[in-house]
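Appendix B. Raw example, untouched.
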Amino acid sequence: MVKSYHPETLEEALKILVETHCIPYAGGTDLMVRYRQGPGLVPNFDRPVMFIGHFPELTAISEKNGEFSIGACVPYRDIIRHPHTPEILRQACSLIGAPAIQNLGTMGGNICNASPAGDTLPPLSVLDATLTLRSVSGERKVSFLSFFTGPGKSILRDDELLTCIHFRLPHFTVEGYRKVGTRKANALSKIAFAGFMLKEKDMLSDVRIALGAVAPTIVRSRELENRLIGQPVAELAELMPDLLKSYGKLIQPITDQRSDANYRKTVSLRLIKNFVLKEES
């Protein structure tokens, strides 16, 4: 039987984390899969488990002066229902699993799992999210994209907890989210796409594009976005061949049980083109 901890405060939890290097447990929807042994068998956790999903600091959503904050242990259900949740993020959360998963699963877990197929990761990337990481020695804020170092890997230290996700509420004229999977929902992503564009006076004044499940980490390139910013909307089609060629170098998917690499790359490039040119998918 695995040992478990039920701290009463976040401060107590951080101390336990330092002393035991236990596994933080909120919704558990990723952890139960990662440590499963087989149907009907108890998960084989290799370390003690610490429950953290009951702390007020980690279970609140707030919006003030355009700054939106989501506690790491807020379940998808609450994010979907919150009136100020950006639609691009609401869509991503609403396509994660069945209602039971949405009632338990948390955005913090989706982030810390660090899977490149995490459904909320592309939207959070284009939202330019910031993450708050906290330990007994203090807290630090890191940019969303800098958090991930590879499949299942991040800069989160053993003595740290992700406590909050922050971003400014977006103001764009065009937005898009697309999850490509075996089914519309309750399936892992073959490809996940998120994008924002701001068109002003027939010019593209801002653009953000991110893709998941097509590389070791989320694909987003500010360098390539800058090629589009400031361009006349009527001339975007002329930039597509070179732009897609450059994105093709960044999109390096694998072949696995859900899809093959060629399909993922082809569809990813088409999603980028269709979004920028606003063609029908």
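End of appendix B.
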